[in-house]
Specification:
The structure holds two protein chains of two kinds.
Chain A: E1 7-8, E2 11-12, H1 13-20, H2 24-41, H3 43-46, H4 79-115, H5 117-132, H6 135-146, H7 150-159, H8 163-176, H9 180-187, H10 192-200, H11 205-228, H12 240-247, H13 256-283
Antiparallel strand pairs in A: 1-2
Helix pairs in contact in A: 1-13, 2-4, 2-13, 4-5, 4-7, 4-8, 4-11, 4-13, 6-7, 8-11, 9-10, 11-12, 11-13, 12-13
Chain B: H1 2-29, H2 44-53, H3 60-72, H4 87-122, H5 127-141, H6 144-158, H7 170-200, H8 203-210, H9 215-227, H10 235-252, H11 259-267, H12 271-299
Chain lengths: 291, 310
């Protein structure tokens, strides 16, 4: 075979790239996220002050200028620094939430799909219950129960966003377990869980990755909503939702306090969901051309 | 069919009871109570009297049973936040406003969403398709309050067309209605696009085209009609979208609707209001589910009871 392949597990990266790079929206999204992540990594180099540093007490609420690109907030912090450090917080929340949901969704979905019967019924009722009740309301209830803060918010978000991954994995396992190689593995005496974890799950990597990537913008959006309502991440950690909510009172006058975090939040979430859609189209041949 | 509907109603009732029990115990296990105060502590006797007046001294299951018994008779008691009126009046007053704006938003979202979906399905992977898809992704993934703020910047602070908020006459309605319509619009557009793409590949579309029917006649009469059958599946996300949307839209535009109470009732340990709102949500969700299921079996003969789904 002369065809070049480059793969992780059983997913062929070059094959995916061939489809992914045709999707202009996903490419633009990737570009934006790349720049944002660079900015987040080099935040200490490009920002004039730390995110919680009260450095500009003499210029409270001042408008954007050459020194303070996004102005100064109500307690004298450089707003550009807060917005840029906000990328770190959002991306961290999104990625860890997706990662934790993986550990809830994949085992449940795999067991439901593989064992079927009562297990499947139980898991699907659980998924249904969680998907019917609006995740935001459940999250608010949990936050009041366990308290706010970065760690709690991440765990609570994972608790309300594992269902998509679970559903995708279950569907994939359902079709994979009827394949010949699965039957062959069983025929040569591989134990049931061996079949599931050694033979079926590695082939279900594509939907797992897609589910995880689509989970990231969703988690960032939910975090921004919780923080906007004042039940998310605690200050002074910069969270865009909370910055927007704080700035809302002064929107008629100090417009910069709401506009910049709103633009960054919109760009991040939108770009990430473009990337997720593009990946889904590229990785799942059944979905190519459709969205 | 009748037996199926009765069974369905029965099982929704059971899940309703389970969910209310879970929520009721969760709600009461949140630390703090409605009459905890830090500034002016009440004497133990006075506090006991207040707790007794609201029945908060009884064991939890008695409180639950009493609440449910009253709720079945549509007696929801009074909200601690607004003790001057009956709960049912509070909800009627605020729900009317939210339902009006939300309903108008849906009415706006339907035609626009269909239009966007059809346009992108007719010319897949063209520039205009990218534009429509991007717009749909935007309305679904970006929180509604961000779009609302952009609208305030452009139409209130920039162009001075509309006031920034309030609820007084048609001029103040327009931006909240648009804000309410955004999420359902995106869902409908995305859904219509994929559904139309699927239908446009069917052989009978080719037949219709080869008969010489005009392009738009084929699209509207032959394709759209069939593409819209399963649109009921997106009723549920739209409903919850409107509901969570109301929290933000009403906060941004300062509208005296029901939305704000979803959050404040949890904060303030306003047990009767919290429970009533949750009952309201669950009952309407269960009802939506039921209607979707029943309509499915009526509309689409291919869906037979017992073997739904793909």
């Amino acid at each position: 075979m002369n065809v070049k392949t480059l793969s992780i597990g059983r997913v062929d990266i070059l094959e995916i790239w061939r489809y992914f790079h045709k999707n202009k929206l996903s490419l633009i999204g990737s570009g934006v996220i790349f720049v944002f992540i660079l900015a987040a990594i080099f935040a200490p180099l490009i920002t004039p002050a730390g995110y919680a540093e009260l450095k500009y007490l003499d210029k409270i609420n001042s408008f954007p200028s050459l020194n303070n690109w996004f102005g100064v907030d109500a307690v004298g912090r450089d707003y550009f620094s807060r917005v840029i450090y906000g990328i770190r917080v959002s991306v961290f929340v999104g990625c860890t939430t997706a990662f934790i949901s993986l550990f809830i969704g994949v085992p449940l979905g795999a067991l439901a799909g593989y064992l079927g019967g009562t297990v499947d019924w139980g898991v699907m009722r659980l998924v249904e219950t969680f998907s019917v009740i609006p995740p935001l309301l459940v999250a608010i209830l949990f936050v009041t129960l366990f308290g706010s803060g970065l760690q709690n918010v991440i765990f609570i978000l994972a608790l309300v966003s594992w269902m998509d991954i679970c559903r995708l994995v279950r569907g994939e396992i359902l079709t994979l377990k009827e394949r010949e190689y699965s039957m062959a593995a069983r025929a040569i005496g591989v134990k049931p869980y061996g079949v599931l974890f050694r033979h079926l799950l590695p082939n279900a990597v594509a939907p797992i990755i897609v589910g995880m990537v689509l989970c990231v913008p969703n988690a960032i959006m939910l975090e921004a909503m919780l923080s906007f309502l004042g039940v998310g991440i605690n200050p002074p950690t910069p969270s865009w939702g909370q910055m927007i909510s704080d700035g809302l009172y002064y929107i008629q006058f100090y417009w910069h306090l709401t506009l910049f975090p709103a633009i960054f939040l919109a760009l991040t979430v939108l770009s990430l969901s473009f990337i997720g859609d593009g990946l889904r189209d590229a990785m799942d041949p059944k979905l190519r051309g459709r969205r | 069919m009748t037996i199926y509907i009765i069974k369905r109603i029965f099982s929704s009732l059971i899940s309703l009871i389970i969910v209310t029990i879970i929520i009721f115990s969760m709600m009461h296990s949140i630390p703090g109570g409605p009459f905890d105060e830090t500034k002016m502590p009440l004497s133990p006797a006075a506090k006991e009297k207040i707790l007794k007046m609201y029945g908060l001294d009884k064991p939890l299951y008695v409180q639950y049973l009493r609440y449910m018994w009253n709720a079945v008779h549509l007696r929801f008691g009074k909200s601690y936040q607004s003790p001057g009126e009956e709960m049912i009046d509070l909800i009627k007053r605020t729900l009317r406003i939210s339902a009006f704006l939300g309903g108008m938003g849906l009415a706006l979202a339907f035609p626009l969403g269909l239009l966007l979906g059809i346009i992108s399905a007719v010319k897949p992977n063209s520039f205009i398709d990218y534009l429509c898809t991007a717009l749909a992704s935007y309305t679904i993934s970006v929180p509604v309050y961000v779009s609302s703020i952009f609208m305030v910047f452009i139409f209130s602070l920039g162009l001075h067309w509309f006031p920034t908020g309030g609820f007084a006459g048609p001029k103040t309605w327009i931006m909240p209605i648009i804000a309410y319509s955004l999420f359902p619009l995106g869902i409908i557009a995305r859904y219509t696009r994929s559904s139309m793409l699927e239908v446009l590949n069917e052989p009978y579309i080719l037949t219709a085209k080869s008969k010489g029917l005009s392009r738009w006649r084929v699209i509207i009469h032959h394709a759209l009609k069939n593409a819209l059958i399963p649109i009921l599946t997106i009723m549920l996300p739209m409903f919850t979208g409107i509901m969570t949307g109301s929290i933000f839209v009403e906060k941004i535009f300062r509208i005296p609707g029901l939305g704000g109470y979803f959050v404040s009732s949890i904060y303030k340990r306003d047990y009767p209001l919290e429970m009533t709102l949750i009952l309201f949500i669950i009952v309407s969700l269960a009802f939506t589910y039921l209607v979707i299921d029943i309509f499915y079996t009526i509309i689409d003969p291919r869906v037979r009871l017992g073997k739904k789904g793909r």
